[in-house]
Amino acid sequence: MHRTNLPRRFMLLGTLAGAAALASDPAPAAVPRATGQAPGFYRHRVGEIEVTALLDGNLAFPDAALPNLFRGYDPAIGSRLRTEAFDAPGGVPLAVNAFLVNTGTRLILVDAGAAAALGPTLGQIPGNLRAAGVELADIDAIVLTHLHRDHAAGLLTADGAALFPRAELLVAEAEAAYWSDPGEETRAPAPLRPFFAPARAVLAAYGNRVRRIGVETEVAPGIRTMAIPGHTPGHLGVHVASGNAQFLIWGDVVHAQSLQFARPDWSISFDSDPDLAARTRSRIFDMAATDRIVIAGSHLAFPAIGHVARRSEGYGFVPAMWRSPL
Ligand SMILES: [Zn+2]
């Protein structure tokens, strides 16, 4: 008995002695747990042009809302895709991102986040811009992919004034015209009507700094807007080209990364034209996969830069690996 019990008793004594030694350590290496993440900016080079992804924050589409949020949503397929994507229980995660394009002579921001319009988990663009070494007054131009609040509310201060003191605001003519038209507001489906007043507030705040552009416009050498229709009447992407490198900031082609790559036919209910949005999504996926274009998405997981790959079931997203040096 003694022989078999002794080693265990020694181990127990040893454990207790160790615990006592730790408890009496005069200088424990206690570090308070962090309460926030590292700053949300990430740089990517496109030839001679620098693009910086900027995180505004994170949201989730709640489970219970999915059947109404996505047209054609099938709970069995959705549940399987979410399991395969290792989504946390409770909802489908999405990020809200903006992108800064530095040509070397001009700083062009693409979208500006949600500020406080969609809750406390967003509104980090100004802080992340500063963390990246850029002041609000440094921005020369802002291109809006569209006028929804998660892209445009961040253009305003809490009082509704223009947050960016110098920037010209480039908005597609079709986009500005649609959200400015009271007739369209009356005709719009009820869930879309609350989007109109905030869009008009942004256009009013920037006043004569708003430049209405065609959906295919050269913003600066190598930087062109590109029609990506369906989500909103003037929804556009920003195509960046330098040397042999190509990069497409595609705005809201994808809202739910874990669902819509596999099921490009599942359009979100906020789309102005869900059928057109679904056709556009398939076309852009096909183009990005075929031409191996690096893409960046407003709602992909930060830093939201990577490739589209063909899969046996639709498409998949292959995030770019963190790269240092640039
Ligand atoms: Zn969006």
TrEMBL record:
Per UniProt, residues of the Metallo-beta-lactamase domain are 95-299
Among InterPro entries, the record links this protein to:
MBL_superfamily_lactonases, Metallo-B-lactamas, RibonucZ/Hydroxyglut_hydro, TAT_signal
Mind telling me which CDD domains this protein's record contains?
A: OPHC2-like_MBL-fold (cd07720)
* Domain of life from the UniProt record: Bacteria
Keywords (alphabetical) are:
Hydrolase, Metal-binding, Signal, Zinc
Q: Which residues form the signal peptide?
A: 1-29
Q: Do you know which PROSITE patterns this protein is assigned to?
A: TAT
Question: Keyword Signal on this protein?
Answer: yes
Question: Which family does the record claim for this protein?
Answer: Belongs to the metallo-beta-lactamase superfamily.
Protein's recorded name? MBL fold metallo-hydrolase
